[in-house]
Amino acid sequence: MNYDGSIYTWYSTVVLLFSSILLATIRFAKIKAGASNVIYWTVLSVVFLFLSLDEASGIHNIAFDFLFTNQHYHFSWVIPGAIFTIIFALSYLKFLFNLPPKTRNLFLFAGLIFVSGSIGLETIANEYVGLGKDAYLKNSYDPHGITYAVISTFEEFLEMIGIVIFIYALIDYISAYITREVILKIEN
Fold this sequence. Notes:
Layout: H1 7-33, H2 38-57, H3 59-68, H4 78-91, H5 93-97, H6 101-137, H7 146-177
Helix pairs in contact: 1-2, 1-7, 4-6, 6-7
């Protein structure tokens, strides 16, 4: 599950893109309603579009490994990713607390689960690989071993569950709070 080009990567790319589309749908409905929080929905839609593109291409691994890789910390994107996540979450506090309670709680729960996988277990996987480099010299580390496979599979599972909960929250929000019907029409 932790390799580019896997079924998980394609699944994750699609659900992140779907999240971006749902967020854009809410954005358009908010524009029509004259809401003041359109920018939050817009930024969320763009962020999820970027996450989808990143999942498909692995930009974060390439860019941050190129810029910041050192001998101790292989998954160097985790540090700036954690900083970005904290800043982003803090900038969205007002927005979150203005959402209906069910939506807010689902957003927070989905985010917590997603970040626990994407940053939390990624850090644990990094430490395992880091420890493994020393163990490799002693011929006892298997980079394709069961321990790393379990950690990375659980990491990806948490990310998938977080996104599914987020999609549920968005669909629930649309059905409960977007009163104007939004019709997406595709023409030839």
